[in-house]
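Mods, move this if it's the wrong board.
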Amino acid sequence: MDIATVNTLPYEEFVDTFGNVVERCPLIAAAVWPRRPFQDFIVLEEAIGDFIDSLPDAGQEGLLRCLPDLAGRELQNGTLSRESHEEQSAAGIDALNSADAARMARLNEEYKQRFEFPFVICARMNDKASIFNRLSERCRNERAAERARAINEVKKICHLRIQHLMHTK
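Not the wrong board. Structure tokens:
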């Protein structure tokens, strides 16, 4: 898909196409649609990032709460989005042994207890070992710093999802 095609998409089709570049947040695609025409995909990505950055802290945390736990219930139940499943699989966390699965569940719960939103990391840019390391390390962050870090990870995921859409549609 090229940017000229993106710029001519009707509202519903734009939201259908870009509605999951930020997991389960089609509202973000809806919010940036009026900013068309986009000069290129970088400008589209910047519009999404600007919208996310403009959210108050509570809005950013709400966005983060939309994201699934890594190797969590949704993966086990087969209810992850196609994109999340591919990302978790690429990192090797879709097939954890029982010890690693228990460790991941414990760390995810510790993280959510501390921050009240799930741990977010760009799985495609990490492997299982680095995900475990970052999860353990980031549990010690202060809330504001961790929210900013998680939002930055959302933007990395968004970038890769937009790139994927450019080459597959």
